[in-house]
Amino acid sequence: MKGKVYLIGAGPGDPGLITVKGKKILEEADCIVYDRLANKELLSWVRADAELIYAGKQPGVESQGNINKILVEKASEGKRVARLKGGDPFVFGRGGEECEILAENNIPFEVIPGITSAIAVPACAGIAVTHREHNTSFSIITGHEDPTKEISSIDWSYLGSGKDPLIFLMAMERLENIAGKLIEHGRSGDTPVAVIYQGTTPSQKTLVSTLRHVAEEAKKQNFRPPCIIIAGSVVKLREKIKWFENRPLFGKRIVVTRARAQASEMTEKLGELGAYVIELPVIKINHPDSYEELDRVIQHIEVYDWIIFTSQNGVKHFMERLCRQGKDARTLYKAKICSIGPATAKELRHYGLISDYMPPKFVAEELLANFPKVKEGSKILLPRAKEARELIVEEFSKRGISVDLVTAYETDYEKIIEEERAEVKKELEKEIDLVTFTSSSTVKNFVKIIEKLGIEKNHFKKAAAIGPVTAKTAEEYGFNVTIKASEYTIDGLVEEIVNFIGQK
To answer: Which residue among 2, 24, 57, 425 is the active-site one?
Structure first.
């Protein structure tokens, strides 16, 4: 039984610019054959048991002939093969050649177009490839012709004599030759040219020059592939409509240290503001050694007047155990519910529960100072992490209120697997603009990880903390906490980061 090959355009670099259909196929495929220009983040969507084959076509790696052979072999084994190619498969991606081979071998295939970098990258540099006041057409030209050709098929006299924009892909190493050919065949040396490096990503960098000087300027500024080169009057539009690089956190390298399952929210918010986010999960959420104590209190849940949830994880693990015992939210009808923070309250709403009380600021001190009046002898249940502050228990005990503290989950530090160690170390050793901490545990575990990687704490010049307790811990460990969120939430922390960097 033969499988099927899907040629998927991965888009221009930003993983968010892959198509919905392309993402769906990646999630379902048995085997993924991917190019070096496809963003590695896309591979986070694939199945855990999927086979990954790197086909970068660099020296010593797979040749096109070998790639064709792999596609035929894997499909012949009955597998659904996702061939992930940068940009669009049919825009200088050799997708047509791969389809021909598949057709010759009677292998079913489907092409899922991608957003081509020829249009998307200039757009992110503030350059519209068509504009009614400038042009009605444009040309896309390869800068990397088939090396076996004896005569170039590029019509330089046509390209040089026209006025429409010219977009060159894979041309960085031939920039000087391209500029010379265009001037030789009639293009003005004063024609505006933009060279855009790693377009659509937080590493995007744009050089604007003229056809006469662009090669020299690109050399001075050390531009290297991958770059898109666009020549024409539309380049002038960048002066007015540059937007991508104007985002408040553009190009800032920010480390996010949350638990793996919770990092995506913060990563997404920072990424939308232009930051280059390095996800370094430092906390691992584990089941406790035993649920015996939690199960016991759930069996007698009706004795509690209040249940205080201090985190989303506390809610999740408590409700999981409740359901495992054949109970649901109706069992909690006698207890009032307190949540520390809107994220915890939101998690409760997933289970049909609404907080009766949430403190004005999301720390234990504020909860205690503003907690609704509770009569002496009342009972409070506090399901939370195994290791946490004892302040709530101590203070309520002084008021004659009984607090049952039960472990709902445990935290440990997330170890870096050996395969990722070199890559993580390389990323962290580059200049870092900010490290973010969302709890005291993230501080302590981050220190453990960088010590194991052999990186000094003073390499990280600035830190941001979600609240005063976390800030204090970070400072005790020697970090320069320059940003402290006044609202102790992810949104509050991101807002403070934007305000701080904006002022600078």
So the answer is: 57
